[in-house]
C-alpha cells in the first residue's frame, strides 16, 4: 500500500518536495522562501487558503525540527527564515534520495533505469550528452582529488 501511494504522489507532480513534505508544509515553505524573515501571522495571511493560526504555528515548528527553517525569538513570537533556498533544498533532497538508492547491490539496475528514463525524455539525446559530460567532469575531479591526496598525505 505504501509503495503505491509513494509512486502515485511522486508521479502526480514534478515537485521534488512532494515526497518529503506535506501539502501545507510545502505551501508554508513557499511563503518562507519568498521572504527574508517572517512570522506565523504573516505566513498565515500569505497562504492561499484559510488555515488556523495554531496550525501554521505547528507546521513552522515541524519545519524547524526537520531543519528547513531557523527561528529566533522576537518578543513573544518567533521569526522564521529558510535555512536553504528552494533550489538548495531540492538538491539536498535529491542527493539524499540518490545516495540511498546507490548504497547497496542494486546500483547497476538503478543506473540502467536512470539512463533509460533520461533517454526517453523529449530531447533525450541532449540530456544523455549532458549526463555523459557530467560523468567526465566528476571523473576528472575524483582523479584530481586522488592526486592531491597522494601529494599531501596529511
Strand order of the largest sheet: 1-2
Shape: elongated
Structural class, judged by helices and strands? mainly alpha
pLDDT under 50 segments (min length 5)?
Answer: 1-12
Mean pLDDT: 87
CATH superfamily of the largest domain: Winged helix-like DNA-binding domain superfamily/Winged helix DNA-binding domain
Could you describe the largest sheet, including whether it forms a barrel? 2 strands, antiparallel
Top keywords for this entry?
2 domains, elongated, disordered N terminus, Arc Repressor Mutant, subunit A, 7 helices, 65% helix, two-stranded antiparallel ribbon, 154 residues, mainly alpha, 2 strands
Plain-language structure description:
By secondary structure, the chain is mainly alpha-helical. The chain folds into two domains: 2-82, Arc Repressor Mutant, subunit A (Orthogonal Bundle), CATH 1.10.10.10; 106-154. Helix content is 65%, strand content 8%. A two-stranded antiparallel sheet has the order 1-2. The radius of gyration is 21 Å and the shape is elongated. Residues 1-12 have low confidence and may be disordered.
Amino acid at each position: 500500500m505504501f509503495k503505491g501511494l509513494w509512486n502515485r504522489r511522486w508521479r502526480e507532480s514534478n515537485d521534488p518536495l512532494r515526497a518529503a513534505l506535506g501539502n501545507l508544509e510545502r505551501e508554508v515553505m513557499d511563503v518562507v522562501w519568498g521572504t527574508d524573515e517572517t512570522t506565523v501571522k504573516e505566513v498565515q495571511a500569505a497562504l492561499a487558503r484559510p488555515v488556523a493560526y495554531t496550525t501554521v504555528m505547528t507546521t513552522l515548528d515541524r519545519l524547524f525540527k526537520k531543519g528547513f527553517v531557523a527561528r529566533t525569538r522576537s518578543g513573544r513570537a518567533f521569526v522564521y527564515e529558510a535555512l536553504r533556498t528552494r533550489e538548495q533544498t531540492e538538491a539536498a533532497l535529491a542527493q539524499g534520495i540518490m545516495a540511498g538508492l546507490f548504497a547497496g547491490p542494486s546500483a547497476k539496475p538503478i543506473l540502467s533505469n536512470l539512463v533509460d528514463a533520461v533517454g526517453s525524455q523529449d530531447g533525450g539525446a541532449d540530456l544523455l550528452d549532458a549526463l555523459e559530460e557530467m560523468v567526465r567532469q566528476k571523473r576528472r575531479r575524483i582523479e584530481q582529488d586522488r592526486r592531491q591526496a597522494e601529494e599531501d598525505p596529511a
